[in-house]
Amino acid sequence: MSQIAANHPAPVETALPDQVWERRLTKIAADPRMTEDNIHARGVLGKFGLPLLFVGIAGLLLTVIGGFSMNVRHALAAYEVGAFTALSMSLGCLFFLLVFHSLNAGWVITCRRVFEHGAALLPFCWLALVPIVVIEVVNGGVLLEWVGGHGDDYLLKKKAPYLNTGFFIVRFLIYGAVWSFLGWRFISLSRRMDETGDRTLGRKARYTAGWGILLFALTTAFAAFDFLMSLDFRFFSTMWGVYFFASSALSGVSVVVLTLAALRLRGKLTGLVTEEHFHDLGKLVFAFTVFWAYIAFSQYFLIWYSNIPEETAWFVYRKSHGWHWLFVTLCVAHFLIPFLIVGWRAVKRNPVLLGTMALFLIVMTVLDMVWVIRPMVYVQTQPVLEAGLQEPGLSGIWLDAAGALGVLGIWGWLMIRRVESGPLLPTKDPMLHESMAHKNYV
Amino acid sequence: MTTFEPDQSIAARLTGLEPGAQPAPRRQKLIPGTRDDGTLTEDPGQRAPLVLGDRSFGEITDIVCGYAEAPMPKPWLALFSIFSMVAALGTGMILYLIITGVGVWGLNNQVDWAWDITNFVFWIGIGHAGTLISAILCLLKQNWRTAVNRSAEAMTIFAVTCAGIFPGIHVGRVWFAWMLFPVPNSQAIWPNFRSPLLWDVFAVSTYATVSALFWYMGMIPDLATLRDRAYLRLQKGLSRPFGIPMPVGKDIVVPFLPRPDTFRVLAYGLLALGWRFSSRHWHRYEKAYLILAGISTPLVLSVHSIVSFDFAVSILPGWHTTIFPPYFVAGAVFGGFAMVLLLLIPVRAILPNFSDLLTLRHLENMAKILLVTGTMVGFAYAMEFFIAWYGGNRFEYEAFANNRVNPMIAPYWWAYWTMIICNVVFPQMFWVRRLRQNPIVIWIVALAVTIGMWFERFVIIVTSLHRAFLPGEWHMFWPTWVDILTFVGSIGIFLTLFMLFLKFLPVFAMAEVKLVMPQAHVHDHDHDEEH
Lengths: 442, 531
Known about the structure:
The structure holds two protein chains of two kinds. Chain A has helices spanning 18-29, 36-39, 46-69, 72-103, 109-120, 122-138, 154-159, 165-196, 200-228, 240-265, 275-306, 309-319, 324-342, 345-348, 351-373, 376-379, 382-387, 397-420, 432-436. By secondary structure, chain A is mainly α.
């Protein structure tokens, strides 16, 4: 027998030697791309920040005015559209952080700080929901009919153990605690790593991500049940949590792409977030566009095919009460258009085009929330449904715009402030070198 | 070798080792004093090695081709004999069914789908891990997949083969099974295009076609390697004569027959389609690979989504629930990975050098996937149950509470709780690092999951059907011996095919394994600081 392979040394101790780690940090710090100017954005996005803050405050003021002068249900729905789009963007960022950490993803690290900022806004998103809870509880149910009590309705009485104000508030507090903790945890570990260069913090993040995914899934699903599905307490769908999650993941990665594209256009992160990173982020945008469509289609299709009245009602009073145009718009613009455009390689590798598509998809997420929330203003209560008359016109559309832009403007302003507040990427992440050298095809 | 003879050394390099010989095994399997084979580093600053033992490219070829060329070890022969007998038994059962009619199964007017469709969904689900590993993990550039993709893809094909049997034979008059396909015919009888059962025919046959193409195309370069090695051995006179393997003792040599390498040259040569390792071939290969990966990815989702439609479009309590499509996909990946682990952990033991290519880290990663998908499935169970209550529909709620969950009332409570314990409770062990790094524990959990996933389909199908809206229609299902032996036989068919795969085909994608080795990345900017 030939003896080609005679020498097989025993495995050696596998941890990375400290001097190698030190050398790697020095090498990265000395990298010409890691200049102070390239990885900080102080004042660079300020041009967008203040206008966003202005839009936000003006939008919220107009919503309040609309609530008093026109219709409090309409104003609240408009506000919820904004609040849930903001929440879905932040939850989406958190989801990707959980995934990146648990998969030990290397390519994304130069982009990861933006995800961390998005997730760190979860306490704000939660606070943005507080007015909704307060208004619902104080008024005894505005859009959430069941908050007011259960009356004689068979279903409401049956669902009372879950749909009751006390338990609702408890759940709401749990969501706040979980989201705030997870959102804070990743940015703080990442920032601490920037300061100390302690790479074992990466393990802590991975550890948190493991059980964080479980908490994320449960809180996202039940928050979607509590605030969105129970807008119509008769409706139920096991898919609902996944549906909201699909929007979250899509809008989360979209807002990150948008931020990174803006930074690149301002001449930041040159050579660090390259077209290779945009290509991969674009794949995520594409994948979750398709995933959203898959989930939305499956939910619609199964309900349509079985044709059970207690489920179809949800679609019937959307499609036949003046919202059919939105249904068609979502099919075409939330799926078909981005599917055809983002599928194209050149688009994914171009920050401007991909950023534009990301903005477009955030708008689509807003429309998706409109589709879920807004029809409930008119079609919810039985008498109105029977009358079938109060179909929405264009007259109140300013209020819808104001409500959505109000929350999103402030979210955007906070996001920009956060992005400008420190380095644009984790500067001492253990796998940063992989991300800096990331190539799709070698 | 005492003197250096260039000619002989080149011949040795080209032909590999003596047919069937393996390179020297690693001397120390584990780092002394640990359970770590050298891949279980938890340091966030570095990646675990994907190939152990400091192997060269040549040794990878020798390990993989060596096992395909060698006489298999005795345990293989014993197992193969048993499995093929079980497969024959299964084939016999199918024949008996066709001759006699579906009355030999335990079906009745109420439960008209039972083990047949349970087995179909079970096997189709098993297949999904292969496509997930080869397509989705390829698009996600998960390098560790190279250790398992070939065998998982093979498993996909065999599982789809087993799956395809059941819908075919459950129709009763099997000679009309061609009517599943929309074939133009003189009576103008068409299948119902609005039925998900028909979409299933398209989905599964597309899936089988693309998976087979993907698997075969990926194998072409490795088949060419096997062809070339056999050819060179023939040329250099290194070929072994033909021998009949015996359960004990040596093979019986048959001197006048052509040598096995002759057959190898012919068979592998035919299958390798003239592959010559030119850079042009590789270039096209990579393109085709990527395109097939792109096509397979939506297929993984669509196949099991459509299988879930078979149930979810109905109005039967327990079947109609909107989360079915993603829940079925997650369950399929879950069951598929369990099967991959169930097969590959013993393979590591029987063919020891494979444990250099399939390390503890690979097993740990797959264990983590089991944990994630198992918890996803658990999440779906919870959602189903919650919404069954929340929806306020009494029938829906009772289909869960009184037909499945409550041991006092539900006749099939044991099936439901087997499913919960096997699918949700067992994988939770993998939260503990020591457990998910232990091959024996992983194997036990994988076995539990495989059992649990079969029961999941049984619970969905039989417990929903056996009690419909009117108590007068209630009827229990009990399997007959034909039911049981047909299912056991399908396991036999699956395992027989897998054993043949181990014997005759390259179990690892050699080119891909080599691509993830450090030698392939000598120009990485960072290489000087590692080691």
